Amino acid sequence: MILTTTPSVEGRPIADYLGIVVGEAILGANVFRDLFAQVTDIIGGRSAAYEKSLAEARDTALRELGERAAALGANAVVGVDLDYEVIGNMLMVSASGTAVRLG
Predict the structure, then answer these.
(1) I need a labelling partner for 83 at 20 to 30 A (CA). Which of 39, 57, 64, 98 fits?
(2) Are strands 42-43 and 76-87 parallel, antiparallel or unpaired?
């Protein structure tokens, strides 16, 4: 599955547009509490624990995006966008794009 932020895939014509697909991952309040307990790894204002959790959430959202596109018969997702939102005490990572079938 090709995931790209660009509106097309170089050298590959888009044969079919199959619709918008979205993948989400939510980090709950308990994740933040656990991470604050591990703040000992903060150096220069960065926390490896936070960065690891955010990377895992982003990877989950992108994986779900690809799975949902594949379920539509797509072999690529173009125009991929990542959003981060705080909802109460949770952080949501959302990946969206257009599922396409490349020619």
Answers:
(1) 39
(2) unpaired
Q: Quote the pTM value.
A: 0.82
Which one is the CATH code of 2-102: 3.40.50.1110, 3.60.20.10, 3.40.50.10330, 3.30.110.70?
A: 3.30.110.70
Phi and psi, residue 96, nearest 5°: -135, 160
pLDDT tens-digit readout, 13-35: 999 999 999 999 998 756 555 55
Contacts of 40 by beta carbon, 8 Å cutoff, 6+ apart: none
